[in-house]
Design goal:
Elements: H1 3-16, H2 19-36, H3 38-41, E1 63-70, H4 79-85, E2 92-102, E3 105-110, E4 120-124, H5 136-141, E5 142-147, H6 158-194, H7 196-211, H8 214-225, H9 229-239, H10 241-255, H11 259-266, H12 271-279, H13 285-308, H14 319-326, H15 336-363
Antiparallel strand pairs: 1-2, 1-5, 2-3, 3-4
Helix pairs in contact: 1-15, 2-6, 2-15, 6-7, 6-9, 6-10, 6-13, 7-10, 8-9, 9-13, 10-13, 11-12, 13-14, 13-15, 14-15
């Protein structure tokens, strides 16, 4: 067995012995699977889980209501689009407290928050295309809907919004860390390997960027690029490369003095091959650890931006946006509307930090 394989095996065994590291890894695997199958798992699988029912807003977890669905024509949608982007539905859902079947139409009483008599409306049999008889309407178009986490202030299913919102948090982490790694590793490797004026110029850029508060820089970039989903990804990624570049620079400066690098130069290998084949593979352990911390940082920054209203824009669900919509409810007797997404953000960030600590211990050759 080669040395590299032996070291990898040892590190893996040390990681497996770390309970919190393994627990966090399993938790993140569940989160990733949840993000992939979000619309399949969400009770409200419409696009962005944006089905509003104002008459049942801010209801507690476990709330149940009878729902009448009024169908309408929808555009043709592929199974792939429905799975990843939700169902484009123009159907109208009406919470009801009672209904009666009468000749050629159904009479319903709308649900009200205070329990008083709601509005009464009538719908003809022709409005339900799949119902051949009046008795088919209750079977196919009336159902009891349960909201496991309750509803938000617009009457949307909070569980569905949370499930789909996890995509934003994980996506911002992956994209931001990828951008930061590409820029940070490139500039850090160049600065550490060549030194001199090249190192001085890159370090000046690093120090200037480092001196600007991260959140302010992200806000400035976001405002320059515009509010939106992808703009936040780019903005966060462009602010997280500094730490990566500093760590890579320090690692490269130490590794480039090793004998095998000197031997590679003597054999006439070009700088690109020496950096990519001989130096970076032996300098990546700290980068892997810092990437986990950056992932957690990216999730927090995105949540902060969404809370400020310059992150993911409505109706796209974002955990930070959900907190923004409901933080006032903490003192209005319904704190769960803000606590649930807050706990979700805390859990996801903590998992990445614990994985980073576990990887640090596993890759530490002194232990």
């Amino acid at each position: 067995m080669s040395r590299s394989t032996s070291l990898t095996h040892i590190a893996l065994q040390k990681f497996k012995r770390n309970f919190w590291g393994v627990f966090s890894f399993c938790f993140l695997v569940i989160c990733v699977l949840t993000a992939i199958f979000a619309y399949a798992l969400a009770p409200d699988n419409t696009e962005n889980a944006n089905q509003m029912h104002l008459s049942i807003h801010s209801k507690p977890p476990g709330f149940e209501v009878t729902m009448l669905t009024i169908p309408s024509e929808v555009e043709t949608q592929s199974a792939f689009s429905r799975f990843f982007f939700g169902r484009k539905s123009a159907a109208t859902e009406i919470p009801i407290s009672d209904y009666k079947l009468e000749s050629q139409h159904i009479s319903i009483t709308e649900y009200t928050l205070d329990g008083t008599q709601g509005l009464q409306k009538e719908y003809e049999l022709s409005q339900f295309p799949e119902a051949t008889a009046l008795e088919d309407i209750p079977k196919q178009y009336i159902k009891t809907q349960k909201f496991l986490l309750g509803t938000d202030k617009y009457g949307r299913d909070l569980l569905s919004r949370m499930l789909i919102g996890i995509r934003i948090s994980l996506a911002i982490g992956f994209v931001a860390v990828f951008i930061s790694l590409v820029i940070g590793i490139t500039l850090g490797a160049i600065a550490g390997y060549f030194g001199g004026k090249v190192d001085a110029a890159i370090m000046w850029i690093i120090n200037v960027t480092w001196s600007i508060p991260t959140l302010l820089l992200v806000i400035a970039i976001t405002l320059a690029l515009g509010k939106g989903f992808w703009q936040v990804f780019i903005a966060v990624g462009l602010t997280m490369w500094v730490e990566v570049a500093r760590v890579v620079r320090g690692q490269v400066m130490g590794v480039k003095e090793m004998q095998y690098v000197t031997a590679a130069r003597a054999l006439g290998y070009d700088h690109f091959r020496i950096i990519t084949k001989h130096i970076l593979p032996n300098a990546m352990a700290p980068v892997i650890i810092i990437s986990a911390a950056n992932f957690a940082g990216a999730i927090l920054i995105e949540s902060g931006l969404s809370f400020l209203g310059i992150g993911a824009q409505p109706p796209m669900p974002s955990w930070g946006g959900i907190i923004k919509d409901h933080y006032a409810y903490i003192i209005l007797g319904k704190p769960y509307l803000a606590i649930i997404p807050g706990v979700a953000i805390m859990s996801l960030v903590t998992a990445f930090m614990l994985i980073g600590n576990a990887m640090r211990d596993a890759l530490d050759v002194k232990n």
